[in-house]
Amino acid sequence: MAxxxxxxxxxxxxxxxxxxxxxxxxxxxxxxxxMMQEITGHEGxxxxxxxxxxxxxHYKYExxxxxxxxxxxxxxxxxxxxxxxxxxGPDADRxxxxxxxxxxxxxxLYINKLDDVDREILAEMIRTGYQHVMAELHTPSS
Length: 142
What we know:
The radius of gyration is 15 Å and the shape is globular. The protein has four helices and six strands, in the order ααββββαββα. By secondary structure, the protein is α+β, with helices and mostly antiparallel strands. The chain has helices spanning about 15-20, 25-40, 90-100, 120-135, and strands at about 45, 50-60, 65-75, 80-85, 105, 110. A six-stranded antiparallel sheet has the order 1-2-3-4-6-5. The protein has a single domain (about 15-135), classed as Aspartate Aminotransferase, domain 1, CATH 3.90.1150.200. The chain starts with 12 loop residues before the first helix and ends in a 5-residue tail after the last helix. It comes from Paenarthrobacter aromaticivorans. Pfam families: DUF1801.
């Protein structure tokens, strides 16, 4: 079975965030790091070359595919901030309309900048997404 492409690395989160070219995106990345670290209690870890993840979980699908993933995380991309794990929580459908300007994808939440969203709602989505992933989706390692 193929291994996940996105794995934790030893790359420095500080170096990655300081290398983000767009100053506003870099500042938002630093703020997201602080928020996610405070909410999850985990230090940020680089998953692949561009995702900062907090906490991790092991998953196993009925198909037999399994792997590890960051519980929540983000990537400061050139066009937007991609946030991972926030739409999994049971309150996501209720909170998304209150969040502010955003888009959603299959498993991602996209925002242009933090000033476009309500930070308290965002913090609640980080909290509930993280708790849901760790409690409901986590498969204990054998």
